[in-house]
Amino acid sequence: MSQQKTVSHIDNLPSTPGKFKPDKSPPYIHRLRVHSAISRLTLWSSLFLIFIICFFFFSPPSSSASPRRALGGDSWGGHNWEKKVSRSAQTRSGLTVLVTGAAGFVGTHVSIALKRRGDGILGLDNFNDYYDPQLKRARRKLLDRAGVFVVEGDINDSELLRKLFDVVAFTHVMHLAAQAGVRYAMQNPGSYVHSNIAGFVSLLEACKSATPQPAIVWASSSSVYGLNSKIPFSEKDRTDQPASLYAATKKAGEEIAHTYNHIYGLSITGLRFFTVYGPWGRPDMAYFFFTKDILKRRAITIYEAPDHGTIARDFTYIDDIVKGCLGALDTAKKSTGSGGKKKRAAQLRIFNLGNTSPVPVSELVSILEKLLKVKAKKKVLPMPRNGDVKFTHANISLAHKEFGYRPTTNLDTGLKKFVSWYQDYYSGSKKRVARAFSNI
Ligand SMILES: O=C(O)[C@H]1O[C@H](OP(=O)(O)OP(=O)(O)OC[C@H]2O[C@@H](n3ccc(=O)[nH]c3=O)[C@H](O)[C@@H]2O)[C@H](O)[C@@H](O)[C@H]1O
């Protein structure tokens, strides 16, 4: 009993050493006190040790110290990586631009054009295999030579995006990463939602939280006009009848852009590209695979509208598109938000970037036959209902007024340049391949 009392008395002793007054208790009381002090010390040391272990195990590794694995891409992070990122984005007096989809067709041309005039450019691309990734790797070589570093990663990787905005204060984002192709949407609808909707939102989230907020210029598409029959297509025309999921995701992008502009004060410019073609183009596009098939003496399919109607496109040459992109970047006003909050209304624009002269697909094939000096084996079939539209035709007066956009390359001239690049690039001759790389 008395021992129990004594123990409870010992437990009530002050734990602060300075307040402990030595007393004249018997020796067994001292032993008990020492024993208790040792137990407490052991308990606190164990707790401290557990805390340290938990801290090291559960805290995220510092990405500046060790590289991390990107979502669907290379590893990123670390001192050397950050140095490459900063060096690529460095500029004396120009823009500091993050180009998404930099290893894509338009992304490569725009990045090189911006770098050449002195802007600081950082590329981002996930190098997916929608079409030959070898071609994307070859474009990366061009970018490397031009001094543009391309980070391999996905726009859905918000941690990577945050890191990029931490390392570089981008003034602009040229957003070109997307799942392209009108007809492929029937085979892989999820990829359109992943890149063109979820990916776009992920990018806008990063932009709205960045300090400073960048101005954004991004690629919408002529396909948003869908079944619109009023020609030429003007930005004021209706865009609520998309004919493909691709078009629907681009239209959704335009609405999402409105929301981020409205809530967060992001300055956003959408560019509706009209069937862009040229050297280093996309192998999934008709002019590209027609060239390949004609040269291989394989039959090509040409679609026609009901009642043998013509299908036509406002084919637009890549150099004209590049000028349009640069014009849009140069006239983009600053975003107005900060810390994720809007201060005042910000710029929100949409422009057609087309060629203003539609050409029937049959005419495109005739030009290719002349340039390739091979007669095409043609199969004419009714246009399947798989997302295609009968014709496109851009009214470009708005882009002309705002930044002097005026396309100057007709389809004959543009295809001549494409065919010359194609024949060099796929020639198998070292000298000619080198020429394909130098002609950009
Ligand atoms: O402006 C856009 O926003 C879009 O442009 C491009 O789409 P489209 O204009 O449909 O180009 P593309 O496929 O080259 O077909 C060209 C023509 O060939 C016809 N076509 C096609 C295939 C075939 O086998 N036969 C055929 O006649 C076909 O009927 C069509 O008339 C981009 O791919 C797209 O990503 C998007 O950017």
Automatic annotation (TrEMBL):
It is a multi-pass membrane protein. Residues 97-333 form the NAD-dependent epimerase/dehydratase domain. The chain crosses the membrane at residues 41-59. It catalyses: UDP-alpha-D-glucuronate = UDP-alpha-D-galacturonate. It holds the Pfam family Epimerase. Keywords: Isomerase, Membrane, NAD, Transmembrane, Transmembrane helix. Residues 1-22 are annotated as: Disordered. GO terms for cellular component: Golgi cisterna membrane. Residues 1-15 have a biased composition (Polar residues). One of its GO terms (molecular function) is UDP-glucuronate 4-epimerase activity. InterPro entries: Epimerase_deHydtase, NAD(P)-bd_dom_sf. It is found in: Golgi apparatus, Golgi stack membrane. Its EC number is 5.1.3.6. Belongs to the NAD(P)-dependent epimerase/dehydratase family. Homodimer. This is UDP-glucuronate 4-epimerase. It comes from Cucurbita maxima. The gene is LOC111465031.
